[in-house]
Amino acid sequence: MIVTSMSNLEIWKALSADRDKLRIRAESLVPKVAKKFKKERKFPAWTWEEYEHQDSRNKYLIMFHSPIPATVDNPIVKVLAFIQDGRHKIVIQWGYWQYRKHGSLQVQGVPYIGYFSSHFFSRYRERIWKDSMMPYQELLCRYFFRNELTIPIELNEEIQRKYKEYGELAAYAFQVHDGTCFIRQWNEGDELTIGKEDSDHIAVALYYTFVNNCMMTETQNKAIVKEGTKYISDYYRKLFRDALNEAFIRHQSINSEKHIKP
Questions:
Q1: Which of 25, 220, 237, 260 has its CA 20 to 30 A from that of 246?
Q2: SS (H, E, C) the chain
Q3: How far apart, in Å, are the Cα atoms of 254 and each of 146, 184, 189?
């Protein structure tokens, strides 16, 4: 069972080792979930099951989502894990972040683990759902299915005054559908090992609070949109440049081969 004394990479590996049985359990629940969703009158619809892995004893929340009636037989599935930290239950999201080395078009998966504090979801409930009494599990379903798209934004004084006082780990936030996630983010391990079987590199994020757009000033919201747009445009500009470079190198290589005499 995962415990807080384990390293982030050890926790990630332990959760990943349970993935096959989690998939099998989720698939076995789909007929029951579909039957339940067919009785729903309002969409989107959510449901869930708390699950304890028989071998590892790790605790999970298997979540199902049907955005429209046409998807009830094939719901979207997501899985979260829980870890106990004293009296607090921390929500864990884990998987891979995409990594593309500068100058290359090859995309690699980098292990990622995200920790969501109870404070984060208290603020999310308060600021989006007006302190609704919905079950905690439903709150998690709503957050993770509504906020799949995550755009990194680099903080500045317009977005958060005195953000530098929180240290280097607080240089970024995440823009999502419902608002802005303020985080602490860092990498562990050797970046040079990315892509290797024995890589020890992992990206870690701690989500510590949530702010909706209504709480922000017009200046803050504009600054957030500006930084999000900048991140997206920079990404695709670099992707286009690297694609041109790769095409040029390939063209040069083909021409060189043509001029080689047998």
A1: 260
A2: CCCCCCCHHHHHHHHHHCHHHHHHHHHHHHHHHHHHHCCCCCCCEEEEEEEECCCCCCEEEEEEEECCHHHCCCCEEEEEEEEEECCEEEEEEEEEEEEECCCCCCEEEEEEEEEECHHHHHHHHHHHCCCCCCCHHHHHHHHHHHCCCCEEEECCCCCCCCHHHHCHHHCEEEEECCEEEEEEEEEECCHHHCCCCCCCCEEEEEEEEEEEHHHCCHHHHHHHHHHHHHHHHHHHHHHHHHHHHHHHHHHHHHHHHHCCCC
A3: 47, 47, 38
Distance separating alpha carbons of residues 146 and 140, to the nearest angstrom: 10
Task: Give me Rg for the CA atoms of the chain.
Answer: 22
Cβ atoms of residues 168 and 114 within 8 Å: no
Q: What is the pTM of this model?
A: 0.88
- Model pLDDT for residues 47-95, shown as the tens digit of each residue: 999 999 999 999 999 999 999 999 999 999 999 999 999 888 999 999 9
What are 19's two structure tokens? 């993935």
